[in-house]
Design brief:
With 314 residues, the chain is of the alpha/beta class. It has a single domain (13-233), classed as TIM Barrel (Alpha-Beta Barrel), CATH 3.20.20. Helices cover 47% and strands 13% of the residues. The chain contains 13 helices and ten strands. An eight-stranded parallel β-sheet has the order 9-8-7-6-5-4-1-10. Strands 2-3 form a two-stranded antiparallel sheet. Helix 1 (33-46) packs across helix 2 and helix 10 packs antiparallel against helix 12. The chain is globular, with a radius of gyration of 18 Å. The termini are far apart. Residues 1-7 have low confidence and may be disordered.
């Protein structure tokens, strides 16, 4: 069902649909394994295609190496084949990315999400050689994650075209914010493109992307899934209605602070608390919390918020 009209089938099309970049719950400074399992079940029950642990939304930069591996292992074990798992195992060190990715593949991950090397800003040739090394080291599909706002450098279309020639590189998580780049990648390669920006999912699908790796799905997976499925079925009138509803939520919620600060705050407000942030990430201040609560209520979450307030005695 989730297939582009431009070139079908594409490499990686079995990951089309809604994937959730799942948050990592913390409690008293430790990974809250029980809460992680509950959140995974919530996502699977909502019908998502794939769970993506240890992405930016999972606060991977603050996880120790042991925690990173443990979260991926726990996710794979608890999912138990019910949906796919795309493990976030990228790094700005190729050696570290290789170690994490080999471990995830051995654990049974269905694919790996590989962020562009950050901070050290490699050349385009360096980007190519980095992703090539990972793709040639494992037998699972590789999703190249292009997010220059976090990594400080764009993976240019020509580089992605070269990478698309490698059999294991099958997907791009497109988070450049550029519909032009998304269009160019789709026109020049046979890769499956997944949106990396919730607010741009429908525009990207209109030119051939096949879904999203979503932050907001931690909170409202069913609505996002309906939009993606409706667009994939060709009903862009209904999909646009859902897009505009979600846009109001995502633009206000995710615009309040750096991801995943706002989505974690929102989950707490509606009774799906995933615990504290880890420094250097800090909670929303009171003013932004008030804006977020109003945003959630306008989206239709009044009863969930009221129930949580009652449960907490507020």
């Amino acid at each position: 069902m989730f297939r582009t009209c431009l070139m079908s089938p594409r490499k990686g099309s079995d990951f089309a649909g809604l994937s959730t970049a799942i948050v990592t719950p913390f409690r008293d400074g430790q990974v809250d394994e029980k809460r992680l399992a509950e959140q995974i079940d919530f996502q699977i029950d909502s019908g998502v295609t794939c769970i993506v642990p240890c992405g930016t939304t999972g606060e991977s930069p603050t996880l120790t190496h042991d925690e990173h591996e443990r979260v991926i292992s726990l996710t794979i074990q608890h999912v138990a084949g019910r949906v796919k798992v795309m493990a976030g195992t990228g790094s700005n060190s190729t050696a570290e990315a290789l170690r994490l990715t080999r471990r995830a593949a051995d654990e049974g991950a269905d694919a790996t999400l590989q962020v562009a090397p950050y901070y050290n800003k490699p050349t385009q040739e360096g980007m190519y050689q980095h992703f090539r090394a990972v793709a040639e080291a494992v037998d699972i599909p590789v999703c190249v994650y292009n997010i220059p706002g976090r990594s400080a450098k764009n993976i240019e279309v020509d580089t992605i075209v070269r990478l698309a020639e490698l059999p294991n590189i099958t997907m791009v998580k497109e988070a450049t914010g550029s519909l032009d780049q998304c269009t160019a990648v789709l026109g020049a390669t046979n890769l499956t493109v997944l949106s990396g920006d919730d607010s741009l999912t429908l525009p990207m699908m209109s030119v051939g992307a096949e879904g999203v790796i979503s932050v907001a799905a931690n909170l409202v997976p069913s609505v996002l899934l309906e939009m993606v499925q409706t667009a994939a079925a060709g009903d862009y009138t209904k999909a646009a209605e859902l897009h505009h509803r979600l846009y109001s939520l995502c633009s206000k919620m995710l615009g309040l602070a750096t991801n995943p600060i706002p989505v974690k705050a929102a989950m707490q407000m509606v009774g799906r608390d995933t615990g504290e942030m880890r420094l250097p990430m800090v909670p929303l201040d009171d003013a932004d919390r008030a804006i977020l609560q109003e945003t959630l209520m306008k989206f239709g979450m009044e009863s969930a918020i009221a129930g949580q307030l009652q449960a907490s005695g507020a």
